[in-house]
Write a structure and sequence with these properties.
- With 309 residues, the chain is of the alpha/beta class.
- It has two domains: 4-141, Rossmann fold (3-Layer(aba) Sandwich), CATH 3.40.50.720; 145-305, L-2-Hydroxyisocaproate Dehydrogenase, Chain A, domain 2 (Alpha-Beta Complex).
- The chain is built from eight helices and 14 strands.
- It has helices at 11-22, 37-51, 91-108, 121-132, 145-159, 198-219, 226-240, 285-302, and strands at 4-7, 27-31, 57-61, 72-75, 113-116, 139-141, 166-167, 170-171, 179-180, 186-187, 190-191, 245-254, 260-271, 274-278.
- α1 (11-22) runs parallel beside α2, α1 (11-22) crosses α7 (226-240) and α3 packs parallel to α4 (121-132).
- The radius of gyration is 19 Å and the shape is globular.
- The relative contact order is 0.14.
Length: 309
Amino acid sequence: MQKIVIIGAGNVGGQAALFLLREGFRNLLLLDVAKGLAKGKALDLEDCASLLRQNCRIEGSDDFALLKDAAIVIITAGLPRKPGMSRDDLLKKNSEILKGLSLKIKEFAPSAIVLVVTNPVDLMTHLVSEVTGFSKTRVLGMGVSLDAGRLVNLVHQELNVPVNNVEASVIGSHGQTMVPVPSLTSVAGARIERLMDKAIIGRLIQHTVERGASIVAHLGSGSAYFGPAAAISDIVKSIAKDEKRIIPVCAYLNGEYGIKGIYLGIPARIGKDGVEGIIELELDPPEKAALLKSAESVRQQIEIINPKH
């Protein structure tokens, strides 16, 4: 049985464990530095599994030596966004947390594929990659898969069409400079430019960019977790079952799109080896310019989290 470890037993980590349990994964471990939290969540999930008639092993602990033999490690640990806090505000605090976790993963799970969820995810994924020294293909971030799902939802609501008829594309940083791509967003194969005017498209794009902050504002404490957990489960399933599906993730670019040396949200082929290929989309000139701007915003902040400092 593949061992899947979730570091961080808060709302995102706990809900991700539930999604994975329901997908039929049989060997799950929750880790958290808060004594008792991961164990309590694991016991609750055990009861849940029995009610769902799922045979699986679920452990919870604060002992990071249990990372040993992990096939996939999911990092959700870190401080959540608070109302009025941008993803960039989280940068320095969460970078310190993830440096320590990365060293633990490097020590105890040197062969694992690592999926980073902690925000700001583009920068945190870069940090984990640098500290672990793992192959770039084995470290990826959740990134814009969540944002693409949010755009799908908004188009579905606007046009009142079945959600499974909508395909949406979002690339770039998982933050204010993300790039929803209308030219590659469609309903049953028809581009949305044919189905709604530019003003409506502009509004949906803006709502996609602001969706995370809106959820934070309404919750008052904490941030989204159902959506992120669903995105985590989707990516992990493609890795664990070697599905080789195309999923928008935060992946390392080595010249693709004219961008080199950073992690950024783009569609990639996801399989048993992690990121098995980068998909280069045909972007309109304004979309390409927006992607390069998003990349530059990430690049400017990398020096802040340089693990050598």
